[in-house]
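Study both lines:
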Amino acid sequence: MATVVLFHHVLGLTTGVTELADRWRAAGHTVHTPDFFDGRTFATIPEGFEFSKSFNTDALADAAVAGLPSDVVYAGISMGGGQAQRLAQTRPGARAAVLLETCFPITGEWAFGPWPQGVPAQIHGMDDDEFFAHEGDLDSARELVASGADAEVFLYPGDAHLFEDSSLPQYDSTATDLLVERVLGFLARV
C-alpha cells in the first residue's frame, strides 16, 4: 500500500477533499491531507486564491512532508496539484504523482525542472475545464507524456473545475468514480 500526501485546492480542505482521501484510505492506503488554510474554506475560487497569496505555499508543503518518508505519492487538486508536482520533481525519492486538474510544464519559465526518471504520473481533468483545458495545463500534461515519462492523461467530458469535490455544486459523481478507480489502480502498481 502507498503513502499519499493529498494537497487541497484553493477553496481549502473541504469535506469533499477529505471524502476523496477517505475513498483512497478505504482501499488500504495511508493518505495525509495537510491543511494550508488552518480550517478556513472559501465559496469561490477568487476568494481562495486571494487568501492563498498571503502565505508561502511552498514552505507549507515542504513542512507538511518534512516528517514523512521520501517514497510517498504526491497528489493534489488544482493549486495543491502544483505543490504535488513540485515535490515529485524536486524531493528525491518520490514514488509517484497524481495531478488533479493541473499540470505545470516540464520546460520553460514555469517549469520546476525536468521530470525525474522513474517517477510515474497520472494527470486527470475535464476536457473543457476553463483552467485545466484552456490555460495550458492540458498542453503541459501532453508534453509530459510526449517526453517519454511514465505518465498518463485522463480526460473526462465536461467543463467543471474541482469536479471530484463532493461538497461543491460542480461535483460529478460519474467522473469521480472513474477517477478513483483509475487512481486506485495506479496506486496498486506504484
